[in-house]
């Protein structure tokens, strides 16, 4: 179930200061990024199953530029832990958390099997807002559809993803629960060490 959740989240994760350009709404951002990513996956379907560098390339080109990793990092740690962390610790955590996302998504993208996505209009519109939610549905040929909600923020004049919920389960909350326990027992230093070890294991097994 967790693997399915990651696969589904990748498909949608393609996607403060001034308001975002009203000509490019959050739904359009998601549609464009999803279309480009699916096209790349279908074109390189054979290579992505064996060539990890091809998968990393797709993620870095079409996914990560539209993910607010700074906001995600602060949110997943929680205000208290983020505030207590030193500047070097924050910088290191953002880098490690980004690596964790990339390696997690690379395995998911390699398992892509022609799922498609649709998006619903944003309730209440997006104009004048800094944070919005975009509802979508993942259409699968041989299985029930899956409901997803994207949490997007206006970050430096761009609508960017900072969390998503699949069937009511928040990706950030799932990570936050794990990280909170590690910080409670081992502190921020322990969390950074644990992340380094986990990422290294992911690299070795890929």
Topology:
Blueprint lengths: L1 H11 L13 H18 L1 H4 L3 H11 L6 H9 L1 H6 L2 H23 L6 E4 L11 E9 L6 E10 L2 E9 L2 E2 H35 L1
Antiparallel strand pairs: 1-2, 2-3, 3-4, 4-5
Helix pairs in contact: 1-7, 4-7, 5-7, 5-8, 7-8
Brief overview:
With 206 residues, the protein is α+β, with helices and mostly antiparallel strands. The protein has helices at residues 2-12, 26-43, 45-48, 52-62, 69-77, 79-84, 87-109, 171-205, and strands at 116-119, 131-139, 146-155, 158-166, 169-170.
Describe the model.
The chain is of the alpha+beta class and 206 residues long. It contains eight helices and five strands; from the N terminus they run H-H-H-H-H-H-H-E-E-E-E-E-H. The chain has helices at residues 2-12, 26-43, 45-48, 52-62, 69-77, 79-84, 87-109, 171-205, and strands at 116-119, 131-139, 146-155, 158-166, 169-170. A five-stranded antiparallel sheet has the order 1-2-3-4-5. Strand 2 (131-139) and strand 3 form a beta hairpin. Helix 5 (69-77) packs across helix 7 and helix 7 (87-109) packs across helix 8 (171-205). The longest helix is centred in the C-terminal third of the chain and has 35 residues, at 171-205. The two termini are 20 Å apart. Residues 3-8 and 14-22 have low confidence and may be disordered.
């Amino acid at each position: 179930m967790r693997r399915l959740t990651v696969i589904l989240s990748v498909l949608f994760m393609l996607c403060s200061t001034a308001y975002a350009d009203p000509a490019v709404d959050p739904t359009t951002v998601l549609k464009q990024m999803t279309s480009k990513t699916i096209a790349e996956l279908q074109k390189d379907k054979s290579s992505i199953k064996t060539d990890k560098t091809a998968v990393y390339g797709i993620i870095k080109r079409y996914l990560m530029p539209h993910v607010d990793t700074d906001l995600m990092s602060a949110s997943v740690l929680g205000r208290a832990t983020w505030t207590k962390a030193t500047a070097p610790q924050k910088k290191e955590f953002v880098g490690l958390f980004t690596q964790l996302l990339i390696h997690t998504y690379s395995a998911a993208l390699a398992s892509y099997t022609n799922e498609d996505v649709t998006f619903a209009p944003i309730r209440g519109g997006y104009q004048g807002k800094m944070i919005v939610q975009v509802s979508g549905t993942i259409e699968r040929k041989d299985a029930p559809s899956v409901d997803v909600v994207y949490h997007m923020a206006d970050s430096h004049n761009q609508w960017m993803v900072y969390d998503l919920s699949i069937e009511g389960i928040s990706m950030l909350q799932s990570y936050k629960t794990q990280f909170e326990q590690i910080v409670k027992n081992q502190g921020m230093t322990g969390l950074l060490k644990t992340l380094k070890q986990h990422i290294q294991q992911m690299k070795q097994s890929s």
